[in-house]
Amino acid sequence: MSLKAGKEALLRKHYTEAIAILTEYSQESTDxxxxxxxxxxxxxxSAYKKTGRADKAIAICEQLEAYADPQLQxxxxxxxxxxxxxxxxxxxxxxxxxxxxASVIKSDPRRYRKKDVTLSLPSRYIYFLIASLILxxxxxxxxxxxxxxxxxxxxxxxxxxxWLIVISVVSFIFSILLFFMSPWIIDITQKQYHRIQWITLAxxxxxxxxxxxxxxxxxxxxxxxxxxxGWIEDDAPVAFIxxxxxxxxxxxxxxxxxxxxxxxxxxxxxxxxxxxxxxxSFATLTFISAPVQVLYFIxxxxxxxxxxxxxxxxxxxVAAAIANVLYSLSNYLLIWVSHASxxxxxxxxxxxxxxxxxxxxxxxxxARQMLPYNQPAIPTNRLLESTRxxxxxxxxxxxxxxxxxxxxxxxxxEQDPYRVFLWELFNPxxxxxxxxxxxxxxxxxxxxxxxxxxxxxxxxxxxxAELLKEEKKLNKKRLYQNFWRDLFIQISPVVGVVxxxxxxxxxxxxxxxxxxxxxxxxxxxxxxxxxxxxRYPDFRRVEDTDLVSLLIDPYASYVQGTPVQxxxxxxxxxxxxxxxxxxxxxxxxxxxxxxxxxxSFRQWIIDPSMTIKNLEMLCDRxxxxxxxxxxxxxxxxDLSTLQxxxxxxxxxxxxxxxxHQFWNNICxxxxxxxxxxxxxxxxxxF
Length: 686
Fold this sequence. Notes:
Layout: H1 3-11, H2 15-28, H3 35-50, H4 54-64, H5 70-88, H6 123-155, H7 161-193, E1 197-199, H8 201-207, H9 209-222, E2 228-232, E3 239-242, E4 250-254, H10 255-260, H11 263-278, H12 281-308, H13 313-330, H14 335-353, H15 356-370, H16 382-386, H17 399-410, H18 421-426, H19 429-435, H20 442-455, H21 464-469, H22 476-506, H23 515-535, E5 543-544, H24 547-551, E6 562-575, E7 582-587, E8 592-597, H25 601-606, H26 609-618, E9 622-630, E10 636-644, E11 656-657, H27 660-685
Parallel strand pairs: 2-4, 5-6, 8-10
Antiparallel strand pairs: 1-2, 3-4, 6-7, 6-9, 7-8, 9-10, 10-11
């Protein structure tokens, strides 16, 4: 058997097959100190951990601990600590996994004895929903009016009252037409991404009998037609609703949703969609989403064209990037309606099902199912991206939750991965992240759902009631000191620009028309220089940690990196649209961490072949990553160095050094020097 075959079986998650191949390979090896033999042992430890055989993994780690290499000893010791904790844990407390029977084993429902209960929600959320519906429609019509005003200036230099009447009438008529055509527009655009199959209640009854019961009771109670039910063959967990009249709505779900949820959880997701019908937000979301969907469709077409083009490829890429930016910005029109609607619809789903815990389980499970599509350098799933506002949750803020749920599902960490919700509950930066999300953060939604469970006298999922008590133990002073520090770091370039403008106004008597531009370049450069020096602190107090510890830290910064050191196995790399450089995936003891690597100028711009060569040599090897961890939309580590645990080829050193601080200092210094040069030249010549 070959080492490559064992590696491929491990990557496919065929752990039993990988164990058989790697064991046979190890038995046939004659040199027990060779790099390949040790690599096989490390992969065996990983395979045994995945299958719950901590005893076998411990035996291998104890053998590796006896090797002379210090890095290998350190890795083995850390692994032993984790494995012994798993082995010593009580059997009932371990999270078990059996993929073959996951679809038939039902979760503990923790539900109320009857459905259609009444739950309290502060009235301000209802008022917020009403206000957001009205203001969003007015803002959208106002944008149409401004667009018409801009077009009118092409034809007339003076904006008269007659033009005002014409533009107002056209905007009103266009809005009415768009309102009734919006479901048809979404039908067309969605057809371009995925072919929707329309199913009946009888078809759905085979998959989720409780969901059928919820839909039938809802339609009978409110005297409306059964929504048209759609089905999409896609692994991503998606459920969304659209339409403008209650009697002609469409509720569309994907196969991936049914693969990751149980019957009561699926029913809760359908109840959530019915909640949007009940609170009338579905019509506004559909009305505004239709042109937004068109923008995304244009982006997809331009992206395809850029890949197919044999010439002028860059022009098509720029056009696609502009369309993507416009699509992302247009989503902000829907944020407040979606936020308010989500809170009210969560309450409605809990009332209709009498089971707030079902939705509380469904959201993290969906985050885990989305994880393969929410990683840097991985192509975006178009179904997930195009239905951000119409769906149940925003895929862009689900990565941290998905990672924690994967770790909990594997059951390989001695820490509590569910503490990942603490950051979304108590860290001040959560509000900034939520402003850029189409839905409230999962932690906030689970807090409401836990409150509904408490009203019904039920236990909460993930011991959420105990997590809420953690607020009293948190150091509020530290939280907000970190926040104000981070805010200063984040706005330091803006502060530099403001100071430059003020200085230019005070020195306006110099009569230098280039003074403002010079000062702006200097101020912006100094601001970026200060930002970089504070964002990447030194490594005198670097922490040897793991992914779970980073995810559950409620003090984790959104801006300033925390120096960390993580051992693991480098799984792969790629270029990424969210970060400069290369995005890499590192599997540590608990899960997959994301690394952001920026090479030097020569290795990145002039000759990237050496960088690619080093990355290829490090892939699938046990390495130690040192860098700065930041908790944002994507929890990520800005890499400093990446080194193999065992250096088996001294003449072909395969380590990497990242240059985040270098590039920040170079770019900011160039700005400052350009500003100073312009100031000196213009002060002499003009």
